């Protein structure tokens, strides 16, 4: 009788039809799945951010994560869904760090708040070249669905910026978000160029430039 196939990378203690709350080694199934997804995200960040999205296979992702193809397809429909998750995680982490920096800054001084926000932003997205490539290069042109998701993410940043700026003293409430979109576009271009250049100015110079632009956007009259 032929022995049943076993996956050497499969997690023990989890069989088809198993109760979803069953634990193994003190860890529940949701915990183990969360760990797997993190391992796949780490693998995707490494490969998408170095080799590139188009050149990364599912087999390569699984090898990098130390998991099986079966486990990958239990979590994701394909590499694009993994890219979306990586993209969203970078954006969410960045927004949290900007939030924390703004809350900790002296709100009476707009220049200080702007510098803190831009410092947190550049530290979050521009210190890891893999994140830079995933956000500003690889996320574009994958598919129409991914492009819509990327544009929606940009619009979310615009709304966030308009809301955050409007709560600070000395600023003007913007009636449209095109000004925010313009600032985000210029910020993206500056950070991408700085992060990918061999010769570049000091980080503090770039932070000061972006902070100055933010203050100008926040205090100038609304052109509308």
What does this protein look like?
With 224 residues, this protein is an all-alpha fold. Helices cover 65% and strands 2% of the residues. Strands 1-2 form a two-stranded antiparallel sheet. A hairpin with a 2-residue loop joins strand 1 (23-24) and strand 2. The longest helix has 26 residues, at 79-104.
Topology:
Elements: E1 23-24, E2 27-28, H1 29-48, H2 58-65, H3 69-75, H4 79-104, H5 110-125, H6 129-138, H7 144-166, H8 178-196, H9 203-219
Antiparallel strand pairs: 1-2
Helix pairs in contact: 1-2, 1-4, 1-6, 4-5, 5-9, 7-8, 8-9
- Ranges where pLDDT stays below 50 over 5 or more residues in a row are 1-21
Strands of the biggest beta sheet: in what spatial order?
A: 1-2
Roughly how many Å apart are the termini? 78 Å
By DSSP, the count of extended strands is: 2
Describe the biggest sheet? 2 strands, antiparallel
Content of β-strand: under 5%
The percent of residues in helical segments reads 55-70%
**Rg from C-alpha positions?**
22 Å
Q: Treating each run of at least 4 consecutive H or I residues as one helix, how many helices?
A: 9
Mean pLDDT: 84
| Secondary structural class | mainly alpha
Shape: elongated
| SSE series | EEHHHHHHHHH
Main attributes?
elongated, 224 residues, mainly alpha, two-stranded antiparallel ribbon
């Amino acid at each position: 009788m032929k022995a049943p196939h076993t996956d050497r990378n499969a997690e023990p203690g989890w069989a088809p039809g198993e109760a979803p709350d069953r634990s193994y080694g003190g860890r529940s199934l949701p915990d183990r799945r969360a760990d797997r997804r993190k391992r796949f995200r780490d693998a995707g960040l490494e490969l998408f951010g170095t080799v590139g999205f188009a050149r990364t296979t599912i087999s390569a992702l699984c090898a990098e994560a130390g998991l099986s193809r079966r486990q990958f397809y239990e979590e994701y429909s394909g590499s694009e869904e993994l890219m979306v998750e990586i993209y969203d995680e970078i954006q969410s982490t960045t927004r949290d760090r900007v939030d924390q920096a703004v809350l900790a800054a002296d709100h009476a001084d707009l220049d200080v708040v702007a510098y803190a926000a831009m410092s947190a932003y550049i530290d979050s997205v521009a210190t890891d070249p893999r994140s830079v490539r995933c956000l500003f290069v690889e996320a574009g042109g994958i598919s129409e669905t991914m492009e819509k998701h990327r544009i929606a993410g940009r619009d979310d940043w615009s709304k966030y910026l308009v809301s955050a700026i409007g709560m600070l003293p000395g600023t003007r409430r913007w009636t449209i978000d095109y000004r925010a979109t313009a600032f985000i576009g210029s910020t993206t271009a500056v950070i991408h160029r700085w992060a990918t250049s061999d010769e570049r100015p000091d980080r503090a110079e770039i932070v000061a430039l972006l902070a100055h632009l933010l203050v100008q956007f926040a205090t100038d009259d609304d052109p509308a």
